[in-house]
Amino acid sequence: MSDLDTSMSGQWRFDPEHTRIGFSAKHAMITTVRGAFNDVDGVIDLNAENLTESKVTVRLKAASVDTRNEKRDAHLRSPDFFDVENYPEIVFVSSTVDEVEEGNFMVVGDLTIRDVTKQVAIPIELLGINRDPMGNLRAGFEATRRLNRRDYGLEWNLPLDTGGVLVSEKVTLEFEISAIKTEPEQQG
Where do the structural domains in the chain lie, given as residue ranges? Predict the structure, then answer.
């Protein structure tokens, strides 16, 4: 049985203005390059009484990738990486949600990039729940998960003269999520 308050049950939508879904990877084996997707849509359908009935769905527009470098972003959008013309979305759909300890969850589901779907487990921490000044009930979450980009057909690389490769195969996904609960309007 979950320690969640049953009043938390319902639909929570990601607030794209206060949500960051990003990534980091080593470049030339010595520096870290960070990026994010600027077009994010996510929904948490939460059943606090029975987490097994909960579902998380996240959709990212691959063309919204942003590393603060236009040339690199254009390369990431190309067939060498995300191939946004043929694969416009990156999608995650959960199969299970489990509270592993109070405020910490394991969300397992299918991540699809470039029509390649793999099951991933993402450990997520609930940072808190508060009402914002506009009266919205907000929940904050953070998570990281390391993946091998080659598992999803993101194969492009160049060897370095000193050994190693230009772009690391291991990529860390970074989630900073603000979700707003969809609440029925007060009737007066």
Answer: 6-181
- In what helix (H) or strand (E) does residue 92 lie, and over which residues does it extend? strand 89-101
Question: Residue 67 carries which side chain, given as an amino acid letter?
Answer: T
The tens digit of pLDDT for each residue in 80-125 reads 889 999 999 999 999 999 999 998 999 999 999 999 999 999 999 9
Superfamily of segment(s) 6-181? Lipid/polyisoprenoid-binding, YceI-like (2.40.128.110)
pTM over 0.85? The answer is yes
Burial 66-88 (b: 16+ CB within 10 A, else e): bbeeeebbebbbeeebbbbeebe
Which has the closest alpha carbon to 113: 75, 86, 144, 142?
86
Residue type for 43, please? V
Q: Please enumerate in sequence order all residues whose Cβ is within 8 A of that of 15, keeping only pairs 6 or more positions apart, or say none.
A: 138, 178, 179, 180
Integer Cα distance of 63 and 186 in angstroms = 39
Structure tokens at 161: 């003269």
If you ran DSSP here, which 8-state letter would residue 17 be given? G
